[in-house]
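User: Run a structure prediction on this.
Assistant: Running it now.
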Amino acid sequence: MEKLSRREFVRVSALATAATVAAACAQPTATPEAAATTAPTATTAASGGEATAVPTEVTAVSRFNEAPMLAEKVAAGALPPVEDRIPENPAVLPVAESIGQYGGTWRCGFKGVSDVTGQTYMNWNSLTRFNPDLTITAMLAESWEMSADATTWTWHLRAGTCWSDGTPLTTEDVQWWYDNYAMNTVLNPSGISAFKTGSGDDSQMCALEVVDDFTFILTFAHPNPLFGYLVIWREFPMMPGYYLEQYHADFADATALAAMVADGQYADWAALFTEKRQEHLNPEVPRLDVWLYTNEAANELVITERNAYCWMVDEEGNQLPYVDYINYRLFETIDVFNMWVVNGEIDMQARHIDSANFTLFKENEDAGGYDVLLALSASIIAVQPNLTCKQPELRTFFNVRDVRFALNFAVNRDEMNELIYDGLQVPMQYSPLSVDPLAYPEQAYANLEYDPDKANDLLDAAGYSEKSADGYRLFPETGEIISFEMEGLEPSGSPYEDAMILVSQYWQAIGIKAVYKYSERSLYEEHQQANEMLCGTWSADRTVMTLLAPDNIFIGNNTQRPWADAWGQWYNDPTQPNAEEPPADHWIRTIWDLWDQIKVEGDEATRTSMFHQILDVWKEEMPMQGYLGEAPYPVIKNKHMHNYVGGYPEGWLTHGISVLNCPTFYYDDPENH
């Protein structure tokens, strides 16, 4: 089996990807206040155009069908008829290939409770969603309107939508969410970022007005033209208060609540409430998801089953999803997961599938009964020295501009690409991908040369010329060796770990001692939130649909990539215990000022220009070092599963494989699965 070349990858997938994103960047044709019709959908430019309702003709579905496992319950009197379980005007999901068949179990792998993001991809839904062409359309909302000044958003829910226990969804659930969760200063001391505008002292939560049972209005203190995108990230402005009240201090009996807190060893009622509202920790909480947890995510085998009250159908009126169950099986090492793949024990998965293993997976396609399709990875291999780390000497070191450039020039990207990734990736800094409307080659491909002599000269000139007997550079303040851990999520044996080990060797050659350390995600996040991480190595994504990231790596408020950990925490919430205000004259404030302007700017071209100014700061200051990107992303698909096709960007902002509507995936032989 020959290895996949970069040229072959481009031939089979890049054209499809480019066409997809290009189509999404077309200017919207709707006016700012398009009138709602009986059954509208909505589209808008994925590059950040205003999200406005666009009425279209939708063929009415006169008859609905359901899965056999649900029909049996209806016949036994355990469920209402399907017509009574779905909205009057359900969300209609297009299929990529064909109308499907009901039944079967979809098998996946996961790394633990902290890896539930991969599980939410399958269930992804909110008021809006992405179409496969990366425009957005109505989902839980039947339609919406945005005011001309982008401060007022009117939302219309689908009448007849139910929670998973059959309770009708109405604006009463929106009001409960707003009054008792979003505005509760114990649960959300600083509000919820997706529903706020402004920054600093001018940061304000939106106001809510309920119009009727299915219509509500959110009014912002500042223009919020991208809000239609921000709610895609499972930002549900509704909660099943009728269930959650038993865990809320404003409703529950104080004695009973205190007993639950004590019995569960929670810190307080807020910790109890936070756990009970999350479906992967509490399967009993009513949900609006496609598949429902039957057990907690802490189990070795997590089983989710179809929601009988799912409010989505296909174009022929078949209630979705097609697949009955999704099972998530826990793996401890990536080698075990890879063995499951080649043995045909994984039916459909992109998460944890590494391009460095393409040849292994391809060689075992027929024996394993799967196909290897190709997407485009949105992640870039990168290292994030923490400019706000608590170690004083290291903090000073990282904050020297020439030090950051020295660490950059010390790494041989071409060699890394060939040795670990078979030459499949593209040397680049952290930057929007070439298929994104915000692509900026002037920054993406700047300062990529391998020049250890320049790196040494920069470190010497920066005052770090003294070395130990072993050749390591010394902190001038203490005379100790410059040494730190590079903390990451990729376990032993993974290609990413190999890349980080190679980085540490390159740095060792210029006198810097760095060691890669694997941490389980929950421990990684604990270190990061405490600002105890010296240097992060989590691959950097948010490179497609970049402006839409509510936590954006480019501005430093995505502190999981902790190049500005304490400053990013301050930007998000100054009351956080490890938050720290940056110096008044620091260049990160230029980034923040531009970002605040971008968030309220209604003109796409102006937003793009402003974002490129942010990238100019990145080019000048190099907050973190990027190495390789634009990688082919293998996706494993059982040969009998349909409605997933390759060629799409695979990343967090586009929700991974969910952009192709996971509820429509199906087996052509469900009885064998």
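Residues 1-59 have pLDDT under 50 and may be disordered.
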